[in-house]
Design goal:
By secondary structure, this protein is mainly α. Helix 1 packs antiparallel against helix 2. The longest helix has 58 residues. The two termini are 43 Å apart. 0% of the residues are buried.
Length: 92
């Protein structure tokens, strides 16, 4: 009898700790999603600015500098896409 009571109380404790972990885990996921959205906004603004600068470099005939900028723009777009994938993953 005493062993059964101990097992019941242990199982109740385990269930309550699972709920606590799931609530704190959900909170962490929500914070991560909002952080990702913030980073996406910042990167998209930076990406627009880099595209404008690239166009200016091309207009002034600085093709070597523009080519380097284009490589950076592609890299930024890839990072932005990775943030989108992470956000979709966290929403499940």
């Amino acid at each position: 009898m005493a062993l059964n009571r101990g097992l019941r109380s242990a199982s109740k404790l385990f269930k309550s700790s699972q709920q606590l972990v799931s609530k704190s885990g959900q909170t962490c996921l929500n914070l991560a999603i909002s952080r990702i959205k913030l980073l996406q906004n910042r990167r998209s603004w930076h990406l627009k600015q880099m595209r404008k600068e690239t166009a200016l470099f091309l207009q002034t005939g600085q093709e070597a500098v523009a080519q380097i900028r284009v490589e950076h723009v592609i890299q930024e777009k890839n990072i932005w896409a990775a943030y989108e994938i992470m956000e979709l993953f966290y929403n499940f």
